[in-house]
Protein backbone atom coordinates (compact mmCIF):
# COMPACT_ATOMS: atom_id res chain seq x y z
CA UNK A 1 0.00 0.00 0.00
CA UNK A 2 1.02 3.59 -0.61
CA UNK A 3 -0.99 6.45 0.89
CA UNK A 4 -3.75 4.01 1.78
CA UNK A 5 -4.15 2.59 -1.76
CA UNK A 6 -3.04 -0.66 -3.32
CA UNK A 7 0.24 -0.26 -5.21
CA UNK A 8 2.44 -3.07 -6.48
CA UNK A 9 1.67 -6.77 -6.52
CA UNK A 10 -1.31 -8.09 -4.65
CA UNK A 11 -4.32 -10.37 -4.50
CA UNK A 12 -8.05 -9.78 -4.10
CA UNK A 13 -10.37 -12.23 -2.40
CA UNK A 14 -14.14 -12.54 -2.15
CA UNK A 15 -15.48 -14.91 0.53
CA UNK A 16 -12.06 -16.60 0.77
CA UNK A 17 -11.92 -17.13 -3.01
CA UNK A 18 -9.15 -15.56 -5.07
CA UNK A 19 -10.69 -13.22 -7.70
CA UNK A 20 -7.60 -11.27 -8.82
CA UNK A 21 -3.85 -11.79 -8.69
CA UNK A 22 -1.73 -9.06 -10.19
CA UNK A 23 -0.46 -5.52 -10.10
CA UNK A 24 -2.04 -2.31 -8.82
CA UNK A 25 -1.38 1.38 -9.26
CA UNK A 26 -3.18 4.06 -7.23
CA UNK A 27 -5.68 1.51 -5.95
CA UNK A 28 -6.66 0.15 -9.38
CA UNK A 29 -5.67 -2.93 -11.33
CA UNK A 30 -2.80 -1.78 -13.56
CA UNK A 31 -0.17 -3.97 -15.17
CA UNK A 32 -0.30 -7.71 -15.56
CA UNK A 33 -2.91 -9.76 -13.76
CA UNK A 34 -5.33 -12.67 -13.68
CA UNK A 35 -9.06 -12.64 -12.95
CA UNK A 36 -10.97 -15.59 -11.53
CA UNK A 37 -14.68 -16.48 -11.24
CA UNK A 38 -16.14 -15.42 -7.89
CA UNK A 39 -18.19 -18.63 -7.65
CA UNK A 40 -15.55 -21.31 -8.19
CA UNK A 41 -12.21 -19.49 -8.45
CA UNK A 42 -11.48 -20.66 -12.01
CA UNK A 43 -9.37 -18.52 -14.35
CA UNK A 44 -11.37 -16.30 -16.74
CA UNK A 45 -8.79 -13.72 -17.91
CA UNK A 46 -5.04 -13.26 -17.99
CA UNK A 47 -3.46 -10.15 -19.40
CA UNK A 48 -2.90 -6.45 -19.04
CA UNK A 49 -4.89 -3.89 -17.05
CA UNK A 50 -4.91 -0.11 -16.86
CA UNK A 51 -7.01 2.01 -14.49
CA UNK A 52 -8.91 -1.06 -13.29
CA UNK A 53 -9.96 -2.33 -16.72
CA UNK A 54 -8.65 -4.76 -19.29
CA UNK A 55 -6.32 -2.75 -21.54
CA UNK A 56 -3.66 -4.16 -23.83
CA UNK A 57 -3.14 -7.80 -24.71
CA UNK A 58 -5.07 -10.50 -22.93
CA UNK A 59 -6.70 -13.90 -23.02
CA UNK A 60 -10.22 -15.00 -22.02
CA UNK A 61 -10.83 -18.49 -20.68
CA UNK A 62 -14.08 -20.43 -20.31
CA UNK A 63 -13.51 -21.29 -16.66
CA UNK A 64 -12.15 -24.75 -17.47
CA UNK A 65 -8.71 -23.52 -18.54
CA UNK A 66 -9.74 -23.48 -22.21
CA UNK A 67 -8.77 -20.43 -24.21
CA UNK A 68 -11.77 -18.83 -25.93
CA UNK A 69 -10.26 -15.47 -27.02
CA UNK A 70 -6.89 -13.82 -27.29
CA UNK A 71 -6.25 -10.33 -28.50
CA UNK A 72 -6.35 -6.66 -27.71
CA UNK A 73 -8.53 -4.80 -25.20
CA UNK A 74 -9.35 -1.15 -24.65
CA UNK A 75 -11.42 0.12 -21.72
CA UNK A 76 -12.42 -3.40 -20.75
CA UNK A 77 -13.68 -4.46 -24.20
CA UNK A 78 -12.24 -6.35 -27.13
CA UNK A 79 -10.76 -3.71 -29.42
CA UNK A 80 -8.20 -4.30 -32.14
CA UNK A 81 -7.04 -7.61 -33.51
CA UNK A 82 -8.07 -10.88 -31.93
CA UNK A 83 -8.87 -14.56 -32.29
CA UNK A 84 -11.86 -16.56 -31.02
CA UNK A 85 -11.66 -20.29 -30.38
CA UNK A 86 -14.12 -23.18 -30.19
CA UNK A 87 -14.32 -25.04 -26.87
CA UNK A 88 -11.98 -27.72 -28.26
CA UNK A 89 -9.32 -25.10 -28.99
CA UNK A 90 -9.75 -24.86 -32.77
CA UNK A 91 -9.72 -21.40 -34.32
CA UNK A 92 -13.24 -20.00 -34.87
CA UNK A 93 -12.60 -16.40 -35.97
CA UNK A 94 -9.69 -14.06 -36.52
CA UNK A 95 -9.95 -10.40 -37.30
CA UNK A 96 -10.83 -6.99 -35.94
CA UNK A 97 -12.99 -5.96 -32.99
CA UNK A 98 -14.54 -2.71 -31.86
CA UNK A 99 -16.43 -2.40 -28.55
CA UNK A 100 -16.34 -6.20 -28.09
CA UNK A 101 -17.92 -6.92 -31.50
CA UNK A 102 -16.42 -8.18 -34.73
CA UNK A 103 -15.54 -5.16 -36.82
CA UNK A 104 -13.46 -4.67 -39.95
CA UNK A 105 -11.92 -7.54 -41.88
CA UNK A 106 -12.13 -11.06 -40.56
CA UNK A 107 -12.24 -14.78 -41.27
CA UNK A 108 -14.55 -17.48 -39.88
CA UNK A 109 -13.59 -21.16 -39.67
CA UNK A 110 -15.63 -24.30 -39.09
CA UNK A 111 -14.83 -26.83 -36.36
CA UNK A 112 -12.58 -28.71 -38.79
CA UNK A 113 -10.41 -25.60 -39.23
CA UNK A 114 -11.59 -24.90 -42.77
CA UNK A 115 -12.21 -21.35 -43.92
CA UNK A 116 -15.95 -20.74 -44.27
CA UNK A 117 -16.15 -16.95 -44.68
CA UNK A 118 -13.83 -14.03 -45.20
CA UNK A 119 -14.93 -10.47 -45.46
CA UNK A 120 -16.06 -7.35 -43.66
CA UNK A 121 -17.91 -6.99 -40.36
CA UNK A 122 -19.72 -4.17 -38.61
CA UNK A 123 -21.20 -4.39 -35.10
CA UNK A 124 -20.59 -8.14 -34.97
CA UNK A 125 -22.38 -8.92 -38.25
CA UNK A 126 -21.25 -9.55 -41.80
CA UNK A 127 -21.50 -6.16 -43.49
CA UNK A 128 -19.87 -5.18 -46.76
CA UNK A 129 -18.07 -7.48 -49.16
CA UNK A 130 -17.45 -11.12 -48.38
CA UNK A 131 -16.86 -14.64 -49.65
CA UNK A 132 -18.41 -17.92 -48.48
CA UNK A 133 -16.74 -21.29 -48.95
CA UNK A 134 -18.08 -24.86 -48.87
CA UNK A 135 -16.71 -27.81 -46.86
CA UNK A 136 -14.17 -28.48 -49.64
CA UNK A 137 -12.85 -24.89 -49.30
CA UNK A 138 -14.25 -23.98 -52.73
CA UNK A 139 -15.74 -20.55 -53.29
CA UNK A 140 -19.58 -20.73 -53.21
CA UNK A 141 -20.65 -17.11 -52.95
CA UNK A 142 -19.00 -13.75 -53.41
CA UNK A 143 -20.94 -10.57 -52.80
CA UNK A 144 -22.40 -8.03 -50.44
CA UNK A 145 -23.84 -8.42 -46.94
CA UNK A 146 -25.96 -6.25 -44.70
CA UNK A 147 -26.67 -7.07 -41.05
CA UNK A 148 -25.37 -10.61 -41.47
CA UNK A 149 -27.42 -11.46 -44.56
CA UNK A 150 -26.71 -11.47 -48.26
CA UNK A 151 -27.87 -8.15 -49.61
CA UNK A 152 -27.13 -6.57 -52.96
CA UNK A 153 -25.16 -8.05 -55.83
CA UNK A 154 -23.43 -11.38 -55.66
CA UNK A 155 -21.99 -14.28 -57.61
CA UNK A 156 -22.76 -17.96 -57.06
CA UNK A 157 -20.13 -20.58 -57.85
CA UNK A 158 -20.24 -24.35 -58.25
CA UNK A 159 -17.04 -26.42 -58.30
CA UNK A 160 -15.13 -23.16 -58.43
CA UNK A 161 -16.90 -21.93 -61.56
CA UNK A 162 -19.24 -18.96 -61.78
CA UNK A 163 -22.77 -20.16 -62.61
CA UNK A 164 -25.05 -17.25 -61.59
CA UNK A 165 -24.90 -13.57 -60.99
CA UNK A 166 -27.50 -12.72 -58.40
CA UNK A 167 -29.14 -10.02 -56.36
CA UNK A 168 -30.35 -10.39 -52.78
CA UNK A 169 -32.56 -8.39 -50.48
CA UNK A 170 -32.39 -9.11 -46.74
CA UNK A 171 -31.04 -12.61 -47.37
CA UNK A 172 -33.58 -13.55 -50.05
CA UNK A 173 -32.66 -14.17 -53.66
CA UNK A 174 -34.60 -11.72 -55.82
CA UNK A 175 -32.85 -11.92 -59.20
CA UNK A 176 -30.46 -14.26 -61.04
CA UNK A 177 -28.87 -14.43 -64.42
CA UNK A 178 -27.09 -17.52 -65.77
CA UNK A 179 -23.47 -17.17 -66.80
Description:
Strand 12 (139-146) and strand 13 form a beta hairpin. The chain has no helices and 15 strands. The protein has a 15-stranded antiparallel β-sheet, with no helix packed on it. The mean pLDDT is 95. With 179 residues, it is an all-beta fold.
Jot down its keywords.
mainly beta, elongated
Please count the beta strands (DSSP E, at least 2 residues each).
15
Helical stretch tally: 0
Q: Averaged pLDDT, please? A: 95
Low-pLDDT runs: none
The proportion of strand residues reads: over 45%
The N- to C-terminal Cα distance equals 73 Å
Strand arrangement in the largest pleated sheet? 1-2-3-4-5-6-7-8-9-10-11-12-13-14-15
Instruction: Give the proportion of residues in helices.
Output: under 10%
Largest sheet: 15 strands, antiparallel
Indicate the radius of gyration in whole angstroms. 22 Å
Content-based structural category: mainly beta
Shape: elongated
Question: What string gives the helices and strands in order?
Answer: EEEEEEEEEEEEEEE
Amino acid sequence: YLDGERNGKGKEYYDDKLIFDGEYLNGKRSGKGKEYYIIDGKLIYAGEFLNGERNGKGKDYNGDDKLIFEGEYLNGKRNGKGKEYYEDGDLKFEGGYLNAKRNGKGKEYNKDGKLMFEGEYLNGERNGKGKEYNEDCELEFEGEYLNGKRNGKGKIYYNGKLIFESEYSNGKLIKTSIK
